[in-house]
Amino acid sequence: MKKTYKIVACMSVAAACMPSANAQQLENPGFEGEWGACVPWTFYITDDEAVYGKESAVEVGTQPAGWCISNVTGMASYYEGEATGLGSTVVGEKVEGFESEAGVKLTNTANPFMASQIVPAYITLGTSWSTANPTFSLTGIEIKNADGGSFGGIQYTGRPEGIEFMYRNRTEDAVKSTVVAYLWKGHWTQKDVPAVVYMTGEPVVKDMTDRDRCVLGMDMTGLQGGEVSKTDDAELIAVLTGEITEVSADWKKFSGKFEYKSDATPEMLNIIISAGDYFAPASDVKEGNTLTVDDVKLLYAQGAAETFPGYLNVSMGGENITVDQPSSLEITSTGEGLCTILLPNLVLEMGGSPLALGDIKVENVKVTEEGGVVNYEGSVKDMQLLGGMIVADVNLKGTNENGKLKMNIDVMWGETPVYVTFTSSPSAVSALEVEAAEAAYYTLQGVRVDADRLAPGIYVKRQGNKAVRVLVK
Question: How many Cα atoms are found within 13 Å in the side-chain-facing hemisphere of 270?
């Protein structure tokens, strides 16, 4: 008869709310992941009759997964029934990176139809946008009301100390490059931001959520868009601003720290790295200003744990158990190329009853890096699990490639080895939420007990899709 096992992933709610346990890293920080079509938001409208009811997405260059490059579409036009952009301009491209095959080269570039209009080059975790209002005169086309930037970002609940990345390719006559990053919660909404610009007539406008200047509390005088409102919980939590002025054809490291304005837990993060002065007016954007970027990382205080949400797959006693159960894994740097790796509160459900193995914690894990891939290797002899009833040797090997963590943890328990594979995935975060369900209590041996008649001791508490160990005194 085939045995059935189920993995129950556990994470303490209290620990999850602590800043040190919510440290997260970025998706595709080295840009080695998939590059896809860049479709600028400005002039990306699919549901408005003002653009003839046709899909108006226009591809302009490419960009790395998880990031947005500030390529622009230009002014709306249709040719033979297809949407096009007059003046579309590519300002970012894939080049050789820092000890890797991919980096992002940003170059302020002139609009091919109007050489006086220089498109600023930047990369962001949010969505880039740009707008301008062309007018005609006897002397030609005049551009007014130029505006743009980044809005939105990624969901993020950590409190990093700062940011670092590698850069190069700044030229002798380059003006400063700038870095802007910020953490916030709640939302700001600006009404009537120009989204589709025509050669003649009024632009199509859309509401924009979490525009950079709105979140940062900057003066909006003279900028495009209408009234700005915010939710009751909207709060700017931390800001990082930095400049790069050094001229170098060799790779250099930028490092900057966040200034925290609040003790609140963030909900969102945006990072903007610009080839020029990001908040400078359009007239000050310098053509040819260039910056090549790679390996964008969030910095945490040494000793702070980085928590990776993801999924577990397990085989036990020669039988595969692949349930993609939501879980989390913590990595704590201990310096000198070493770290501690923790898979907390591992519980196997056997025949409908949970078997709480407990924490799998491997200290003094060796950390090395080669070709942009971080490697982990460590082991523990005679680890006590299941309240000391199981004694096993644990061998761990793993990699972190482009923000994707994969960890193999072999628990060598006599003739019944347990092979655990953890794979990180941001989508696992929502699956870790506790469902509204009645709590059930089990002994460490998997026997369910009456919640109202618990004797002093340690129990496994199950509620919805979450299980934790609890101490009853």
Answer: 26
Tell me the CATH architecture of domain 5-22+303-472: Beta Barrel (2.40)
Predicted confidence at residue 2, as pLDDT, reads 32
Beta bridge partners of 233: none
Instruction: Identify whether the C-beta of residue 6 lies closer than 8 Å to the C-beta of residue 348.
Output: yes
Q: In sequence order, what are the residues at sequence separation of 6 or more whose Cβ sits closer than 8 angstroms to the Cβ of residue 50?
A: 196, 204
DSSP 174: P
Q: pLDDT tens digits for 108-140? A: 998 887 777 889 999 999 999 888 766 666 665
pLDDT in tens, 7-36: 333 322 222 222 333 356 788 889 988 999
What CATH number matches the domain at 35-299, 2.40.170, 2.60.120, 3.40.50, 1.25.40? 2.60.120
In terms of DSSP H, where are the helices of 174-249? 212-216
For residue 3, how many other CB atoms are within 10 A of its CB?
10
Q: Output b/e per residue, 384-421; b: 16+ Cβ within 10 A.
A: ebbeeebebebebebebbbbbbebebbbbbeeebbbbb
pLDDT range class, residue 144, cuts 50, 70, 90: low
